[in-house]
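[recover] target loaded
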């Protein structure tokens, strides 16, 4: 019987656990998932203010094959799906010449009525054979005398036959170094750019020029006199249930423009207001603002980078999932998680040895 440890309780780690349970592998004894914080979901961060959904991370579930919408349907969350608000116009582009329409094709998209944080919570509630440990930061990994992996965390040590790292590449590199230094060096090649999101709630008539926020948002391009990389009108974009007494607007700070990490929350809010005034004109101040920060928001994967998994004389499986493999979208992460779960299943079924 095999025991699996999953490091990371974001959507990738939770999806691996769900997929392993769904595959009904007889060789699998149990799964232990370690999450360093008190909350599941990783970059998915939702909040509420007077019935208004506030998103601090991704807000979109994209309709792609074998992706996140399949997971939503599998866990019985489809009744919570909502689409783009009827009549909402597409994304705008803001540049040195003012407003332009976005020329790209926008994919069919959905969100969840109570915020995307409903998704990780629902996945966790469907895990019957997975033990979730919150506030359980994994400190290191090592081999034991039988070639299994010892998972050292703040309150003990667990020995596992298979370990799936569902954490950002720099953290995975630190954990991988005692097990496979070459693989750790490859992970160190992946750099991250931080991002911050300022989500603000305004009175429904806060902005004089209402033509702009009949669109779902805007993105800035080179030459634009703005520091933010774009904005999204959540109450225009999504057909949330309930009354619309407020306008929820969020701006994005980070690549390809500035590094927001040195700025305090107050500085970010001031810059948010400055850019909105410049783009939309004078407006009433927000009634509520929250700043969300993502230090590992955008992985910069070198061209041609691959994660080879060499076979070494140990009877354990070491796998990895996350947005640096095949795309940063939630569908990409879920798809990759199912692929990794299938690889673990094949390894268990074959009772093979080695990594990969």
């Amino acid at each position: 019987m095999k025991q699996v440890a999953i490091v990371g309780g974001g959507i990738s780690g939770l999806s691996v656990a769900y997929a392993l349970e769904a595959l009904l592998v007889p060789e699998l004894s149990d799964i232990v998932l370690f999450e360093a914080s008190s909350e599941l979901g990783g970059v998915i961060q939702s909040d509420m203010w007077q019935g208004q959904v506030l998103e601090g991370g991704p807000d979109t579930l994209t309709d792609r094959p074998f992706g996140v919408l399949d997971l939503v349907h599998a866990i019985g969350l489809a009744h919570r799906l909502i689409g783009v608000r009827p009549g909402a116009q597409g994304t705008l582009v803001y540049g040195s010449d003012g407003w332009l329409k976005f020329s790209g094709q926008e994919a069919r998209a959905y969100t969840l009525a109570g915020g995307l944080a409903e998704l990780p919570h629902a996945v966790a509630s469907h895990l019957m054979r997975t033990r979730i440990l919150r506030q359980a930061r994994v400190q290191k990994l090592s081999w034991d005398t039988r070639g299994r992996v010892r998972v050292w965390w703040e309150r003990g040590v667990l020995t596992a036959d298979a370990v799936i790292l569902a954490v950002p590449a720099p953290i995975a590199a630190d954990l991988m170094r005692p097990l496979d230094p070459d693989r750790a060096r490859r992970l160190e090649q992946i750099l991250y750019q931080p991002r911050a999101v300022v989500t603000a709630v305004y009175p429904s008539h806060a902005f004089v020029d209402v033509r702009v926020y009949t669109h779902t948002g805007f993105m800035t391009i080179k030459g634009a006199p703005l520091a933010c990389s774009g904005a999204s009108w959540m109450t225009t974009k999504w057909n949330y249930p309930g009354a619309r007494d407020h306008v929820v607007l969020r701006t994005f700070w980070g690549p390809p423009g500035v590094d927001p990490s040195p700025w305090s929350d107050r500085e970010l809010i001031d810059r948010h207001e400055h850019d909105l005034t410049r783009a939309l004109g004078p407006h009433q101040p927000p009634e509520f603002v929250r700043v969300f920060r993502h230090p590992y928001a955008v992985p910069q994967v070198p061209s041609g980078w691959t994660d080879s998994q060499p076979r070494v004389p140990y009877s354990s499986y070491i796998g990895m999932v996350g947005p640096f493999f095949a795309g940063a979208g939630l569908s990409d992460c879920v798809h990759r998680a199912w692929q990794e779960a299938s690889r673990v299943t094949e390894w268990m079924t074959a009772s093979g040895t080695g990594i990969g």
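[recover] notes: The chain has a mean pLDDT of 89.
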